[in-house]
Amino acid sequence: MHYSMKKEKAFLPILVCCMVLITAGFIACGGGGSQTAEEAQNKATPDSAADSTSGEAASPQEATAPAGWKTARFENWSIAFPGDWNEDPDTNIWQPGEVGPFMGRPAVSVFMGGIPVMPPANFEERIKIRNGGEPQERVNVNVSGFSGFKCSWEQMGKKYRGLFLEEKIGGMIVIHFFDCQAPATEFDQYKADFERILDSVKKK
User: Fold this and answer.
1) What confidence tens digit (pLDDT) does each residue in 43-96 have?
2) What torsion, rounded to 10 degrees, do the Cα atoms 189, 182, 163, 121 define?
C-alpha cells in the first residue's frame, strides 16, 4: 500500500515522538523484563548520538549526479534525478516531464518516505508487508553507514525497484525508503535510470 507523501511526511515526526515517549515510559516502569546492555547504553546515550544499524553513521555526503542529471534533497537525504524529471512540491514525488494537478501517484515516479517500526515488528517483516511479499532481485547495501537492501516487487500491474535502509532510534526502528515505479510493461525502459537514482542516495 502506498500513502500520500504529504500525509506521511507530516505524520512521521509526531508518531516517532509518541513512540519514543511510550518506550521511555515503559522502560522507566520496569516493563520488558531484564534490561540488556544495549538497552542500558541507549538509555544513557543522548539523542544526538543515536546509533544507525552500522553502529556509526558516516560523514554527510552529497549525491553524485551523472552528466545531465540534477541533485535534490529530501529530509536529510541527497538524491539525483534525470534532468527532465521534476518534483511535485506538495507530495515530494518525482516524475518525468512536467508536474500537473495531483491525481494520485504518476505511473512512472519515485516515492520517498519513512516508516516507524516498533517491536516486536522488525525491519524485514515490515518491508514484506508493505511490498506484498518476499523481496525479489535483492542486493544488500550500506549507504552512508545505514545497512539495508535494494529489491524489486510487483503490485497491480506496476513493477517497482526500491531501496530500504534501517535506522535505530532508541527502542524503535525507522525504515527509510526510496521506491521507483513504472507499469510492468514499460519497466525495462526506466530500469537503468531507476538503478542510478537509487545508487545516488546519500545521507546529508
Assistant:
1) 333 333 334 444 445 556 777 778 899 999 999 999 999 999 999 988 889 999
2) -150
What 3-state class would DSSP assign to 95? strand
CA distance 62 to 74: 12
Burial profile 107-118: b = 16 or more Cβ within 10 angstroms, e = fewer: ebbbbbbbbbbe
CA 143, CA 160: separation in Å to the nearest integer? Answer: 20
CA 146, 116, 72 angle in degrees (round to 5)?
55
3-state secondary structure of 40: helix
Nearest residue to 111 via CA among 7, 11, 189: 7
The highest-level CATH class for domain 5-203 is alpha beta
3-state helix, strand, coil in the chain (%, to 5): 30, 35, 35
Kindly report the number of other CB atoms within 10 A of residue 35's CB atom: 12
